[in-house]
């Protein structure tokens, strides 16, 4: 009898150890975020500040996972932890509602101190050259200007956020075409209404009947990135000015940042 009890206790001990070990293996490979980093997010990232405690933890885990998968390299500048956190936050905000999301089309972010070298400056207007998704040999690379990246989060009144803008291009690109239709996010039945809405809204920008950044009328892909910046930076304003567009973006990102 005593032998049976001892065997039972031994079995129980082994089982408890196994459970503990399993938990260790389940822990995110990126580890826990430090309190210092959490403080920074609270101070700088409005989106994070608005989250409840459980969602804050999810946000932190996603940031850590992003930073363990993507390298941030400074060009003519030293990359700081703050830069890394702003970049990772830009990446996490649009896909926050999608569990287990990975940016499979990104290896590296190059951080420039300001807007880019002359060969990029010739393209588009100022704000836009503050960020780009690489192509050709730069495929799987994103380039961002630190100055613009910071402005997007520091200025409470802006509808612009270059980090979010470029990550939305990456999401758009995941289905093979950067065309304003993010097939990886949007349920199929919304594709046609979404493209119709884009064209209508672009026409309103051209006729100066819109408060969306005119850069959004460049093409469908730019429209999608521009209104996504707006959606996450000034959700309440967008909901008031463009309720139908807001509702559609709610469907795309499965988030209600104005709520
Ligand atoms: Zn763009």
Structure notes:
This protein is an alpha/beta fold. The chain has one domain (35-253): Cyclin A, domain 1 (Orthogonal Bundle). The protein contains twelve helices and four strands. The chain has a four-stranded mixed sheet with strand order 1-2-4-3. α11 (235-241) crosses α12. It is globular. The site of zinc ion (ZN) has 5 residues, from α8 and α10.
Summarize the structure in short.
With 259 residues, the chain is an alpha/beta fold.
Ligands present:
zinc ion
The ordered string of helix (H) and strand (E) elements is HHHHEHEHEEHHHHHH
- Amino-to-carboxy terminus distance: 63 Å
Q: What would you give as the CATH superfamily?
A: Glucose-regulated metallo-peptidase M90, N-terminal domain
CA gyration radius, whole angstroms: 22 Å
**Approximately how much helix is present in the residues?**
40-55%
Number of domains: 1
In round numbers, the mean pLDDT is: 89
What is the count of DSSP helices, taking H or I runs of 4+ residues? 12
Shape: globular
Low-confidence stretches: 21-28
* Strand proportion: 5-15%
Reported by name, the CATH topology is Cyclin A, domain 1
Major sheet: arrangement of strands = 1-2-4-3
